[in-house]
Amino acid sequence: MTTQDYIQLEEKYGAHNYHPLDVVIKEAKGVWVTDVDGKRYLDCLAAYSAVNQGHCHPKILEAFIEQAKKVTLTSRAFRNDKLPIFYKKLADMTGYEMSLPMNSGAEAVETAIKVSRRWGYDIKKIPENKAEIIVADGNFHGRTTTIVGFSTDPMSYRGFGPYAPGFVIAKYGDADDFRSKINENTSAILIEPIQGEGGIVIPPEGFLREVEQMCRENNVLFVCDEIQSGLGRSGRLFAFEYEGVHPDIVIIGKALSGGFYPVSAILSSRDILMVIKPGEHGSTFGGNPLAAAVAVKALEVIEEENLIQRSFELGEYFMSKLRAINNPHIKLVRGRGLWIGLVLDTKARPYCEMLKEEGILCKETHETIIRFAPPLVITKEEIDWAIEKIEKVFNALN
Ligand SMILES: *Cc1c(COP(=O)(O)O)cnc(C)c1O
Fold first, then answer.
1. Catalytic site residue 140?
2. Ligand 1 atom having least distance to the Cα of 226
3. Which CATH architecture has domain 3-56+306-396?
4. What is the pLDDT of residue 255?
5. Is the overall model pTM greater than 0.85, yes or no?
6. Is 110 in the pocket of ligand 1 (CB under 6 A)?
């Protein structure tokens, strides 16, 4: 079958809820993917940062296969011998006392919302059904009905109402606006420390510290969605570290499995997570032994291969090279670590299409922004190779 055969099949039988680039990948290793025609591409999206460790990382693959031979799913009706190790690894690596595992990122966000509300009622004593959570405009937290209800992007929310009440939207980066929306029924502020889908939007210096402070002053939980920004992508374990804050709840997913399996979790303190009692929240697959074994290895690889430091150093290098490209359509290069947004004054899609022809896969976000977020195992030489191609494309489309 040819590329066109696969595309036709997909378009005919699959829902059109995505508009992918016309490349049909059949294999991948590290930062490189290969399509059905045998053409190789440098992956500069890394599955929205789910493959920070590189595609099909050999050590994670081994953990995956070994565990799959033993036991994959017990449900949480019984215990398994991998979940406790996963909990311990998360605590040791992040400093958070406890965690609650789920599968997709959106489920972990839902979990954070439920824990925040329950904490609001049981600990803060908010009157029943009055709890409010303040979120940011331009947010992306997933695709469930509750979550899209507080999106400000019509693509995400239009036609999916009625929307769940209890969410208040404040202006991202504007601490005064957040402060003005707090009242005695506010249980949490939920934000991304850097907005990924929003286009790698970094809030003004001090914003996260101010949000943390208003949370402390008003007895409000500070919840950070680090599903995309976390686990090394930003050049720190967590992007919130750039401001030295300590959120009450941290949401992680994506790279938590290195791309092998959907694994997500929320991290928090014992005091907060103990508001959920047995039977009050869960998931058939959440915390299963296959997920736990894969996640432990995925976290170990981040440490063993020094991926956080790599991301920081190579990110600085990549950005400096991008900034040196002289092109009137490039308005701004911004980012943290190997998480870079190239902001254009024109549509980004044609550039992504042409970069694909040159052997680089990336995806536009918000029409005019190209995101470069390769697996963190990328080398300096591979970045140099990419820069050459990127320059070529910008010169051609000038
Ligand atoms: C990807 C993402 C999610 C949703 O994760 P899924 O696994 O796709 O449900 C939530 N928040 C942020 C910041 C994300 O980038």
1. yes
2. 13
3. Alpha-Beta Complex (3.90)
4. 98
5. yes
6. no
